[in-house]
Amino acid sequence: MDVLFWQLVHLLIRDGYRIARMSERGDEIWLESGHWRSPTLVRLVRADFDWSRSLRLDIEYTWQFIRQMNGRKIGKGGRVVNVYVMAYPPVDDWEFLIAEPLPLSGAAGGAFHTLLIHSGNTGEMLPRLEEMTGSPLRPAPLVGEADPFAVAERLKHEVLTEWRRQREEERRIFEYGKPVFTRLLIIVQVAMFLILEWSGGSTDPSVLIRYGAKFNPLIEMGEWWRFLTPMFLHIGFLHLLTNTFALYYLGWTVERLYGSLRFLLIYTTAGFFGTLASFLFTPSISAGASGAIFGLFGALLYFGTVYRHLFFRTMGMNVISLIVVNLLFGLLVPGIDNAGHIGGLIGGFLAAGAVHLPKRAAWRRQMKALAAAALLAAAGLWAGFR
């Protein structure tokens, strides 16, 4: 049964499952599927319970642990499959404990299933596990005089090697680039703020217009550079302070994920789209890096479409919550250019799709994102200048 346990882990990994966590002894392994429409979380446990009471307590503990996640790892229609691999089942009645799946709060349509595989029912249970996981699970029989202990150790070693490789790969994803342009952009926007203050004040409309703020009449007269220059100007110290902190934390993360050149392209494209949206929907003077910063949120959302489980396991819910809170804040508080924020969010997402993530080219997807960005920009410029 040790061999079967590690064979199941090995087969699930081969079919695209990733190890989410593992106990120190390796007798409990959680795996998550890559199927975002109907995700599956599998818990495999190699244990022998003499009495059903121990089995019941472990099932209840695991069910409560999953319920505390509020469905974040499972999602709509997903499932948790809790699998025990045993040499023999408990000596008293235990079948009623696993007869029906348990509901999952926070995961609409989700269910918590338990399977108990022992030496006498593998032929019956493995097809059920195949159906629940969507993976072909046909463990190879031991050949000839093969030592089962040696086979189990070899499979365990292969699984642990793969797990270390996955963890190293994930670490490298978050450490691809260095935040060079993030620092430079912060220096530029602080320097521009000081220049505005020296020239008469960052809240003076005439000063803002002179240094490149978004001013629709001048854009209509052909001063096209005003689609880019507003992202370096800020109106008042508080505006500068909030955007500088946002740029520092978001820019640091996005530049390390995408690399410096991709980051700069995402940032400037998002800034352009933010100003374009403001030009179309807001007649007042505006300035600030908010549109470009929302574009960094868009880049993180795009990262979540490529690495869904990694995204939600690390920063996903925080990113989505911050986007929602900031957009609601913009709707409720007067004077905030929400059109620029939404435009920047869309521009950053499309720009991230066009450049994609390092070392993961997806040309068809990139071409679609590039075409969508070009079409949207062209439509916006046509609507603004007609």
TrEMBL record:
PANTHER family: PRESENILIN-ASSOCIATED RHOMBOID-LIKE PROTEIN, MITOCHONDRIAL, RHOMBOID PROTEASE. The chain crosses the membrane at residues 180-198, 231-251, 263-281, 287-303, 315-333, 339-357, 369-385. Belongs to the peptidase S54 family. Gene3D superfamilies: Rhomboid-like. It holds the Pfam family Rhomboid. It is found in: Membrane. One of its GO terms (molecular function) is peptidase activity. Keywords: Hydrolase, Membrane, Protease, Transmembrane, Transmembrane helix. It is a multi-pass membrane protein. The keyword Ion transport does not apply. It comes from the Bacteria. GO terms for biological process: proteolysis. Residues 222-354 form the Peptidase S54 rhomboid domain. This is Rhomboid family intramembrane serine protease. Its main location: membrane.
